[in-house]
Amino acid sequence: MNRYASTTATNAREAAEWSTGRIIRSNLRAVIGRAYPRVIGLTREPSWLFFEIFLPFLAVSAFVFVYRALEAPEAYVGFVVLGGAMTAFWLNVVWMMAAQFYWEKDQGNLELYFTAPMHLMSILAGMAIGGLVMTSSRALAVIGIGSLLFGVTYDIQQPFLLAGVFLLTMVPLYGMGMLFASLFLLWGREAFHLAQLLQEPIYFLGGVNFPLRALGPVAGVVMATLPLGVGLDAMRQLVFADSGVAGVLPVGTEVLILAVMGVVFIVAARLALGYLETLARREGRLTLRWQ
Amino acid sequence: MAVTGRAASVRGMTLADAWRTFRTAIKLGWAIESNWSDPFLFAVYTMAKPLAAAGILVVMFQVITGGQNPEFLQFLIVGSALWNIVFGVMSGLVQSILEDRERYRMIKYVVVTPTSLFPFLLGRSLARVAVSFVAVVLTMVVGVLFLGVDLQPNLLYLVPATVLGVTAVIALGVFMAGWCLSLRQEAWSYPEAIAGALYLVSGAIFPIDILPTILHPIAYLSPTTWWLEASRRGLLGHGSPGAIGGLSDEVVMLILLVSTAVVIPVALAAFAWFMRRARRAGLLDMITGS
Lengths: 291, 290
Prior knowledge:
The structure holds 2 protein chains of 2 kinds. Chain A is built from 13 helices and no strands. Chain A is an all-alpha fold. The mean pLDDT of chain A is 87. Chain B has 10 helices and no strands. Chain B has helices at 15-35, 39-65, 70-103, 107-112, 117-146, 155-181, 190-201, 216-221, 223-236, 249-281. The longest helix of chain B is centred in the first third of the chain and has 34 residues, at 70-103. Chain B is globular, with a radius of gyration of 20 Å. The model of chain B has no long low-confidence stretch (mean pLDDT 87).
């Protein structure tokens, strides 16, 4: 029986020459396949649902109570709730994008990814799409529960622009996660420390619990490097238009920065992944467990 | 395979053996925590995380008060600094046991050796606890040097408060470690969840009077509330704002003593029960993949 009968190829080299359509279909299947467990996990793992809502909500509550103790204007409570919702996305990026390849390596999946006939960017895109869907439900829950319990009021005058800014924030945010996925793998055993390091310091620099402007000149650095901070600052200007608290830059400028960041992080992720793939194939070491 | 028997009658299981196990586990824990990491990254990680956590509170305080009410800032800094110990102990104990079960897959071998898991667990987690003490000192130093925290330490009060409080926190960590050993899903998230819940109810960064009334009983029952209050009095010379600050030093110390005395036997009994359950259910070599 001809081993290549299903593709009508007569030898292995010919069988490996896929048409563009087949490559696209295969990669799309990889995207869907990697996104699937994260989306379906919404219904099959209630414990995920509980922890991913409960943990950000605990932090949100603590900071809300600090503002209440300081007798801060109510708009600041809203800042914290919105920041808490965005924290869910950041945690998803750090633990389920950046650290994911490292965990996959520990579980023995990474070598399968490298040998499968698809691009690793498809796996990362699947992780990002699945993570985005999964985390959106958590973020909405944090906003809903936080708003109800703490009586947050919103003044949204440009809902479409707000939706656009949110989506535009997600592109560099998850692009950053894709880039970190390769870097974490290269840096090896420190993945846990790195993931921890990307929490409180980023919450501080990103102005998750206070207006970014309060950081003074440091806010300028954040504007150039951290999509979480830029997106949050823009969204706060749009969601709490009546708060009287100014953003670091006008929303239009921040939208432009997010767009540039999106391109930069996705391209950087692609380059890092290419380098990683070369190392993995040449040295055969990066995909090995316990390294 | 489940490990159901106990090697209780094996000769040589003395206090000296437990001490040797403890020492060996300390070396192992420290090697995993530090030597396997890049030293620079480890130092940055040790410093940046607690300082950033305190920094968030400082900026929130400055934005709202413009630097007025320095006593509240001191309350925030001390609470934020001390909370590193709670998180370090909780995550240290729980992650040691989960890492050894699921990642390094060694816990079953430790359990079948003629020693107790308990000294191993304490020693294995000590590195993280030590790092958390470094974080406390670092945050306090930054508070004193740059943020105007005025320390007026009363060692006669602070030392017993610290001994009792840290013992109570270790007891809570032992309870959590036993609990997580018997969990099949999401055990990694429990220490963060419990430490986060305690952070909320213990008056770590805001007076517990601000909490909804329904949470007040939990706040008053938690030994961490009384440890933080006693530590503030020992470090700053005054207590927290609000009702709890009106209590005398003696009453606060007495409640800390009582709550610690209650939590220790409960935690040890619970750990023993969770271990028996884990042995019977074959959970010692389980890999959840979560």
